[in-house]
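Archive maintenance. Older records in this collection stored only the sequence; we are now back-filling the structure field for every entry so that each record is complete. The fields below show one back-filled record exactly as it appears after the update. Entries are processed alphabetically, and DUF1444 family protein is next in the queue.

ARCHIVE ENTRY
Title: DUF1444 family protein
Organism field: Dactylosporangium darangshiense
Length field: 278
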Amino acid sequence: MNMVAFRLQREGGTIVTGHGRTRDDDAVRQAWAMVQREHNAAPGEVMELYSEWEPSLADNVFIAKAFPRAKLTYSFSRPANGQWDAAFAEARATIERAEAERRMREVDEQGQLVPVLWSPRTAAEMLQMLPYREIVPGALVVTVAVAAPTPRGTIGMNHVTRAGLGDTPFEERLAAATESLTQGLSINAYNDGEVFGVSREGGFAASAIALPGFGARMAQIVGSEDLVVAITDADCAFLAAAGSPAAQHLRQMVAEAPRGGQPEPTLLRLNGRGIAVA
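Back-filled structure field:
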Protein backbone atom coordinates (compact mmCIF):
# COMPACT_ATOMS: atom_id res chain seq x y z
CA MET A 1 0.00 0.00 0.00
CA ASN A 2 1.12 3.53 -0.82
CA MET A 3 0.48 5.97 2.03
CA VAL A 4 -0.56 9.50 1.01
CA ALA A 5 -0.75 12.42 3.46
CA PHE A 6 -2.82 15.53 2.82
CA ARG A 7 -2.29 18.79 4.71
CA LEU A 8 -5.64 20.56 4.97
CA GLN A 9 -6.39 24.23 5.38
CA ARG A 10 -7.84 23.71 8.83
CA GLU A 11 -6.75 24.86 12.27
CA GLY A 12 -3.12 23.85 12.86
CA GLY A 13 -2.69 22.63 9.27
CA THR A 14 -4.38 19.29 9.95
CA ILE A 15 -2.69 16.29 8.29
CA VAL A 16 -4.88 13.37 7.26
CA THR A 17 -3.79 10.15 5.55
CA GLY A 18 -5.18 7.57 3.19
CA HIS A 19 -3.73 4.80 1.08
CA GLY A 20 -4.07 3.07 -2.23
CA ARG A 21 -2.52 0.04 -3.92
CA THR A 22 1.03 1.09 -4.78
CA ARG A 23 1.16 -0.43 -8.25
CA ASP A 24 -2.20 1.01 -9.33
CA ASP A 25 -2.21 4.06 -11.60
CA ASP A 26 -4.86 5.64 -9.37
CA ALA A 27 -3.22 4.99 -5.95
CA VAL A 28 -3.41 8.69 -4.99
CA ARG A 29 -7.03 8.91 -6.14
CA GLN A 30 -7.83 5.87 -3.94
CA ALA A 31 -6.15 7.56 -0.96
CA TRP A 32 -8.11 10.77 -1.57
CA ALA A 33 -11.40 8.89 -1.73
CA MET A 34 -10.60 7.37 1.68
CA VAL A 35 -9.80 10.82 3.13
CA GLN A 36 -13.02 12.27 1.76
CA ARG A 37 -15.06 9.48 3.37
CA GLU A 38 -13.31 9.55 6.75
CA HIS A 39 -12.66 13.28 7.17
CA ASN A 40 -15.28 14.96 4.97
CA ALA A 41 -12.45 16.77 3.19
CA ALA A 42 -12.92 18.99 0.16
CA PRO A 43 -10.36 19.43 -2.66
CA GLY A 44 -10.08 23.15 -1.99
CA GLU A 45 -8.79 22.44 1.54
CA VAL A 46 -5.67 20.61 0.35
CA MET A 47 -2.56 22.79 0.66
CA GLU A 48 0.04 20.04 0.36
CA LEU A 49 0.21 16.33 -0.27
CA TYR A 50 2.93 13.73 0.20
CA SER A 51 2.97 10.32 -1.45
CA GLU A 52 5.45 7.59 -0.49
CA TRP A 53 5.74 6.65 -4.16
CA GLU A 54 5.88 8.99 -7.13
CA PRO A 55 2.38 9.32 -8.58
CA SER A 56 1.62 7.80 -11.98
CA LEU A 57 0.91 9.98 -15.01
CA ALA A 58 -2.82 9.42 -14.46
CA ASP A 59 -2.54 10.43 -10.79
CA ASN A 60 -0.48 13.50 -11.68
CA VAL A 61 -3.26 14.63 -14.01
CA PHE A 62 -5.78 14.02 -11.22
CA ILE A 63 -3.68 16.00 -8.71
CA ALA A 64 -3.23 18.94 -11.09
CA LYS A 65 -7.00 19.16 -11.62
CA ALA A 66 -8.18 18.43 -8.07
CA PHE A 67 -5.50 20.32 -6.10
CA PRO A 68 -4.03 22.94 -8.46
CA ARG A 69 -2.44 24.98 -5.61
CA ALA A 70 -1.11 22.07 -3.58
CA LYS A 71 2.60 21.26 -3.30
CA LEU A 72 3.42 17.61 -4.09
CA THR A 73 6.37 15.64 -2.62
CA TYR A 74 7.27 11.95 -2.69
CA SER A 75 10.11 9.68 -1.47
CA PHE A 76 10.52 6.89 -4.04
CA SER A 77 10.59 7.16 -7.81
CA ARG A 78 7.99 5.17 -9.70
CA PRO A 79 9.65 2.30 -11.59
CA ALA A 80 8.95 1.22 -15.13
CA ASN A 81 6.35 -1.54 -15.49
CA GLY A 82 7.70 -4.94 -14.52
CA GLN A 83 10.38 -3.52 -12.19
CA TRP A 84 8.31 -3.15 -9.02
CA ASP A 85 10.00 -6.00 -7.12
CA ALA A 86 13.43 -4.41 -7.54
CA ALA A 87 12.01 -0.99 -6.61
CA PHE A 88 10.44 -2.39 -3.43
CA ALA A 89 13.74 -4.05 -2.45
CA GLU A 90 15.63 -0.80 -2.96
CA ALA A 91 13.02 1.13 -0.96
CA ARG A 92 13.26 -1.33 1.94
CA ALA A 93 17.06 -0.97 1.95
CA THR A 94 16.74 2.83 1.95
CA ILE A 95 14.30 2.74 4.87
CA GLU A 96 16.56 0.36 6.83
CA ARG A 97 19.59 2.62 6.25
CA ALA A 98 17.62 5.66 7.35
CA GLU A 99 16.42 3.84 10.47
CA ALA A 100 19.96 2.74 11.32
CA GLU A 101 21.23 6.30 10.89
CA ARG A 102 18.39 7.60 13.08
CA ARG A 103 19.25 5.13 15.83
CA MET A 104 22.91 6.12 15.63
CA ARG A 105 22.01 9.79 15.98
CA GLU A 106 19.85 9.00 19.00
CA VAL A 107 22.70 7.11 20.66
CA ASP A 108 25.09 9.99 20.02
CA GLU A 109 22.62 12.52 21.41
CA GLN A 110 21.52 10.54 24.47
CA GLY A 111 24.49 8.30 25.24
CA GLN A 112 27.71 8.59 27.18
CA LEU A 113 31.28 7.69 26.35
CA VAL A 114 32.36 4.37 27.90
CA PRO A 115 35.37 2.05 27.61
CA VAL A 116 34.56 -1.27 25.92
CA LEU A 117 36.59 -4.48 26.25
CA TRP A 118 37.42 -6.69 23.28
CA SER A 119 39.23 -10.00 22.85
CA PRO A 120 41.59 -9.47 19.89
CA ARG A 121 41.71 -13.18 19.02
CA THR A 122 38.05 -13.13 17.98
CA ALA A 123 37.72 -9.47 16.96
CA ALA A 124 40.77 -8.86 14.77
CA GLU A 125 38.76 -7.52 11.81
CA MET A 126 36.77 -5.08 13.96
CA LEU A 127 39.88 -3.87 15.76
CA GLN A 128 41.46 -2.87 12.45
CA MET A 129 38.94 0.01 12.43
CA LEU A 130 39.08 0.94 16.12
CA PRO A 131 41.78 2.68 18.13
CA TYR A 132 42.52 0.76 21.33
CA ARG A 133 44.85 0.28 24.27
CA GLU A 134 46.18 -3.15 25.14
CA ILE A 135 45.18 -4.28 28.65
CA VAL A 136 46.51 -7.85 28.53
CA PRO A 137 48.86 -8.53 25.58
CA GLY A 138 47.12 -10.74 23.05
CA ALA A 139 44.10 -11.30 25.27
CA LEU A 140 42.28 -8.06 26.12
CA VAL A 141 42.11 -4.53 24.71
CA VAL A 142 39.93 -1.52 25.51
CA THR A 143 38.23 0.71 22.95
CA VAL A 144 35.81 3.61 23.33
CA ALA A 145 32.15 3.90 22.30
CA VAL A 146 29.10 6.05 22.91
CA ALA A 147 26.44 3.86 24.52
CA ALA A 148 22.77 4.46 25.30
CA PRO A 149 19.72 2.31 26.11
CA THR A 150 17.30 1.68 23.23
CA PRO A 151 13.48 1.56 23.40
CA ARG A 152 13.72 -2.25 23.11
CA GLY A 153 15.71 -2.45 26.35
CA THR A 154 19.02 -3.22 24.65
CA ILE A 155 22.17 -1.09 24.58
CA GLY A 156 22.99 0.80 21.39
CA MET A 157 26.66 1.58 20.70
CA ASN A 158 28.45 3.86 18.28
CA HIS A 159 32.12 2.94 18.31
CA VAL A 160 34.79 5.61 18.04
CA THR A 161 36.70 4.56 14.92
CA ARG A 162 40.20 5.52 13.83
CA ALA A 163 38.66 7.71 11.13
CA GLY A 164 36.19 9.24 13.58
CA LEU A 165 38.85 10.02 16.17
CA GLY A 166 39.98 13.10 14.26
CA ASP A 167 42.63 15.22 15.95
CA THR A 168 41.63 14.12 19.46
CA PRO A 169 44.23 11.74 20.96
CA PHE A 170 42.77 8.33 21.78
CA GLU A 171 44.09 8.49 25.35
CA GLU A 172 42.06 11.68 25.86
CA ARG A 173 38.89 9.94 24.70
CA LEU A 174 39.71 6.93 26.86
CA ALA A 175 40.26 9.12 29.92
CA ALA A 176 36.83 10.70 29.42
CA ALA A 177 35.27 7.26 28.94
CA THR A 178 36.81 5.80 32.10
CA GLU A 179 35.64 8.82 34.08
CA SER A 180 32.05 8.34 32.92
CA LEU A 181 32.31 4.60 33.68
CA THR A 182 32.72 5.37 37.38
CA GLN A 183 29.20 6.82 37.44
CA GLY A 184 26.95 4.09 38.80
CA LEU A 185 29.84 1.67 39.40
CA SER A 186 29.48 -0.40 42.56
CA ILE A 187 31.34 -3.22 44.33
CA ASN A 188 29.46 -5.90 46.27
CA ALA A 189 30.70 -8.68 48.53
CA TYR A 190 29.48 -12.29 48.17
CA ASN A 191 30.12 -15.58 50.00
CA ASP A 192 30.92 -13.88 53.31
CA GLY A 193 33.39 -11.53 51.65
CA GLU A 194 35.34 -14.18 49.74
CA VAL A 195 34.17 -12.91 46.32
CA PHE A 196 33.66 -9.31 45.19
CA GLY A 197 31.58 -8.37 42.16
CA VAL A 198 31.85 -5.18 40.13
CA SER A 199 28.55 -4.01 38.66
CA ARG A 200 27.28 -0.87 37.01
CA GLU A 201 23.91 0.57 36.12
CA GLY A 202 24.08 0.91 32.35
CA GLY A 203 26.41 -2.05 31.84
CA PHE A 204 30.11 -2.33 30.90
CA ALA A 205 31.19 -3.13 34.49
CA ALA A 206 33.97 -5.41 33.23
CA SER A 207 35.63 -2.36 31.68
CA ALA A 208 36.52 -1.29 35.23
CA ILE A 209 39.69 -3.33 34.68
CA ALA A 210 40.88 -0.37 32.56
CA LEU A 211 40.36 2.21 35.33
CA PRO A 212 43.54 3.87 36.64
CA GLY A 213 44.45 2.41 40.03
CA PHE A 214 41.87 -0.39 39.76
CA GLY A 215 44.29 -3.08 40.95
CA ALA A 216 45.48 -1.15 44.01
CA ARG A 217 41.95 -0.22 45.01
CA MET A 218 40.64 -3.77 44.69
CA ALA A 219 43.63 -5.15 46.64
CA GLN A 220 42.53 -2.96 49.55
CA ILE A 221 38.91 -4.09 49.30
CA VAL A 222 39.63 -7.81 48.87
CA GLY A 223 42.47 -7.76 51.40
CA SER A 224 45.04 -9.38 49.13
CA GLU A 225 47.83 -8.06 46.89
CA ASP A 226 47.38 -11.03 44.56
CA LEU A 227 43.98 -11.26 42.87
CA VAL A 228 42.11 -13.42 40.40
CA VAL A 229 39.64 -11.55 38.16
CA ALA A 230 36.86 -13.39 36.31
CA ILE A 231 35.31 -11.58 33.36
CA THR A 232 32.29 -13.55 32.19
CA ASP A 233 30.90 -10.89 29.83
CA ALA A 234 31.03 -7.13 29.25
CA ASP A 235 28.79 -6.43 32.25
CA CYS A 236 30.33 -8.71 34.89
CA ALA A 237 33.65 -8.90 36.73
CA PHE A 238 34.32 -10.88 39.91
CA LEU A 239 37.44 -10.86 42.10
CA ALA A 240 38.91 -13.08 44.81
CA ALA A 241 42.25 -13.61 46.49
CA ALA A 242 44.53 -15.81 44.37
CA GLY A 243 44.94 -19.31 45.77
CA SER A 244 41.67 -19.19 47.70
CA PRO A 245 38.77 -21.65 47.22
CA ALA A 246 36.80 -18.69 45.83
CA ALA A 247 39.45 -18.22 43.12
CA GLN A 248 38.87 -21.80 41.97
CA HIS A 249 35.14 -21.06 41.84
CA LEU A 250 35.82 -18.06 39.58
CA ARG A 251 37.89 -20.27 37.28
CA GLN A 252 34.92 -22.61 36.98
CA MET A 253 32.58 -19.66 36.28
CA VAL A 254 34.76 -18.57 33.35
CA ALA A 255 34.98 -22.12 32.00
CA GLU A 256 31.18 -22.46 32.03
CA ALA A 257 30.33 -18.96 30.77
CA PRO A 258 28.65 -18.73 27.32
CA ARG A 259 30.97 -18.02 24.38
CA GLY A 260 30.42 -15.89 21.30
CA GLY A 261 30.25 -12.42 22.83
CA GLN A 262 32.80 -9.69 23.48
CA PRO A 263 34.96 -9.85 25.42
CA GLU A 264 35.44 -13.61 25.63
CA PRO A 265 35.10 -15.06 29.14
CA THR A 266 38.57 -14.55 30.62
CA LEU A 267 40.34 -15.33 33.90
CA LEU A 268 43.05 -12.84 34.86
CA ARG A 269 45.77 -12.60 37.52
CA LEU A 270 46.19 -9.10 38.93
CA ASN A 271 49.03 -8.16 41.31
CA GLY A 272 52.00 -5.85 41.75
CA ARG A 273 53.69 -7.33 38.67
CA GLY A 274 50.78 -6.31 36.46
CA ILE A 275 47.94 -8.18 34.81
CA ALA A 276 48.04 -11.40 32.81
CA VAL A 277 45.88 -14.36 31.79
CA ALA A 278 45.60 -16.73 34.72
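Update note: The chain has a mean pLDDT of 88. Helices lie at 27-39, 57-66, 84-110, 124-127, 162-165, 170-181, 214-222, 245-256.
Entry marked complete.
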